[in-house]
């Protein structure tokens, strides 16, 4: 029987951390703040995420161009020797 939207599976916080490479709780919070990571659904005190929301977020992230790290692309600085006072 195929899974419909109504029967969507949920992942808990530990499963989310394992899915994204043993990330931390703070990683999840930062992704929610800066890249639209799906919001959790609370069942009591426990957080869960719909797997369909996670897959949609992953596809959206894959479609984005990779950020350029300008620190790696700086031209080399010329070294200037200082003259010592005699």
Number of helices: 3
Largest sheet: 3 strands, antiparallel
Helix content: 25-40%
Count of distinct strands: 3
Low-confidence regions: none
Distance between the termini: 88 Å
The chain-level structural class is alpha+beta
In what order do the strands lie side by side in the largest sheet?
1-3-2
Using the CA coordinates, give the radius of gyration: 22 Å
| Rough outline | elongated
| Helix-strand pattern | EHHEEH
Structure description:
- The chain has a 3-stranded antiparallel beta sheet with strand order 1-3-2.
- The model has no long low-confidence stretch (mean pLDDT 83).
- The chain has a domain at 11-65.
- It has 86 residues and is α+β, with helices and mostly antiparallel strands.
- The longest helix has 13 residues, at 51-63.
- The chain is built from 3 helices and 3 strands, in the order βααββα.
């Amino acid at each position: 029987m195929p899974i419909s939207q109504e029967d969507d599976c949920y992942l808990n916080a530990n499963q989310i951390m394992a899915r994204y490479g043993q990330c931390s709780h703070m990683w999840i919070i930062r992704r929610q703040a800066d890249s639209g990571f799906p919001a959790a659904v609370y069942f009591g005190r426990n957080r869960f995420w719909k797997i369909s929301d996670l897959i949609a977020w992953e596809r959206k992230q894959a479609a984005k161009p990779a950020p350029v790290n300008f620190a790696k692309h700086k031209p080399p600085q010329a070294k200037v020797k200082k003259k010592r006072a005699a």
